[in-house]
Amino acid sequence: MKPRFPAEWEAQDGVLLAWPHEGSDWAPVLEEVRPVFIEIIRQIARFERVLLTAPHEAEARAALTGAGVDMSRVTIHELPSNDTWARDFGPLTVIFNTHPVLLDFGFNGWGLKFAADQDNLISRRLRERGAFIPNLQTIGLIMEGGAIESDGIGTILTTSACLLSPNRNPQLDRSEIEQAMASLLGAHRVLWLNHGSLVGDDTDSHVDTLARICPRDVIVYTACDDQRDEHYAELKLMEEELKSFRAPDDSPYSLIPLPWPRPCFDDMARRLPATYANFLAINGAVLVPTYRDREKDILALERIGQAFPGREIIAIDCLPLLKQHGSLHCVTMQLPQGVLA
C-alpha cells in the first residue's frame, strides 16, 4: 500500500515552531522578530495546538504568557536549535492506511549554505521526548518541507532549481527523485516548475514562495505586473508553466495571481524576498504574511480568501521575518491529525 501525503489544509493537531534566540541569526533583531513569532503562536493557538522548541523554555514561556497567549494550547520543549525554519527541518507526515507516520528527511542548511547540525536533530529529539504519537522514520535524503506542495491525492508541485540542486541529492537525477517521492510520499505525478525565483531567497526557489496548491484544484501564485522589475520575465515564464499544468481530472488548474508587494530591502540595500504565497493554512483559518504595503496587503488577503472560502483570513505583519530571507510559512510546520501526543 502506498502512503498518502496530506494537503496542508486537511485537519491538523497543531503546528511546530522554534523560538528565535540569541544564538540564532535573529540575534541583532530579536526585539523586532519575537513579536512576530508571538503573534503567529497566538493566532494558531486560537484554533489548534502549538509545539514549540526553545533553548530556554522559561524565557519563551514568560514572553508568551506576558503577551496573553493561550498557554493551555502551547507545549514547549527545551531543545537547542541553529535557527527557526521549522518548515524545512520539521517532520513530514504521510498517512499509511489511515495511520500517520513521520518522515525525518535530512536537512543540510539549504544545500550546505548554513549550519544545521542542531536543527537536523529536532524531529528525533521531539520523538524521544514523547511529543509525537507515530513512529519517526529517518530518511537518507535531503528534502525540505518548503520545497514541495501536495494536493493530498498524489500530486506534488516542486521546482527543479531546488530538488535538482547539486548540494542536496547529487546522486539522484530527476527520475530518481520522482521515484523517491512516489515510494516515500505516494506521489502519482510530479509537476516541475523550471522557472520562478525571488532575489534574496536562500532556498534555491522553494515552491512555497512561488506557487501553492489550494482546495478544489486552485493554485495561487506569485505574479509580477511591473515590467521594469528584475523578476518580471522569470515569473511570467512560471505563469505560463502553471497554465500548462493539468489537474488530476485533466482540466486546467484555476489560477489566482497574488499581488506583487513593493520592493523590500535590508540595511545594506539588498533586496528581500517578499511573497504573499508564504501563507499557512490551519484548522478553520489561513495566516497570511503582510509587508506594510496597504493596497497590496489587502488584495493578497482577498485573493487568498477566494482560494479558502469559509476560513478566517488573518493578516500577520511579517516584514521583520524578511530580514533573514523568509516569511510565515517558512517558520511553521503543520502536524496533521493524529501526530501530537
Overview of the structural elements:
α2 links the parallel β2 and β3 (74-78). Strands 3-2-1-18 form a four-stranded mixed β-sheet. A three-stranded mixed β-sheet has the order 4-5-6, with helices on one face. It has a three-stranded mixed β-sheet with strand order 7-8-9, sandwiched between helices. The protein has 341 residues and is an alpha/beta fold. It has one domain: L-arginine/glycine Amidinotransferase, Chain A, CATH 3.75.10. The two termini are 26 Å apart. The chain has helices spanning 30-45, 57-66, 86-89, 109-112, 122-128, 160-163, 174-185, 232-244, 294-307; strands spanning 12-18, 49-54, 74-78, 92-96, 99-106, 136-142, 149-150, 155-159, 189-193, 211-214, 218-222, 254-258, 264-265, 271-272, 280-282, 285-290, 312-317, 333-336.
CATH superfamily: L-arginine/glycine Amidinotransferase, Chain A
State the low-pLDDT regions, or none: none
Overall form: globular
CATH-defined fold name: L-arginine/glycine Amidinotransferase, Chain A
Distance between the termini: 26 Å
CATH class: Alpha Beta
Tally of domains:
1
Largest sheet: 4 strands, mixed
Radius of gyration: 19 Å
Order of helices and strands: EHEHEHEEHHEEEHHEEEHEEEEEHEE
Report the CATH architecture: 5-stranded Propeller
**What is the number of helical segments per DSSP (H or I, 4+ residues)?**
9
Helix content: 10-25%
Helix vs. strand class: alpha/beta
- Overall mean pLDDT score? 97
Number of strands: 18
Top keywords for this entry?
protein-arginine deiminase activity, Peptidyl-Arg-deiminase_porph, hydrolase, Agmatine deiminase, EC 3.5.3.12, 25% helix, alpha/beta, 341 residues, L-arginine/glycine Amidinotransferase, Chain A
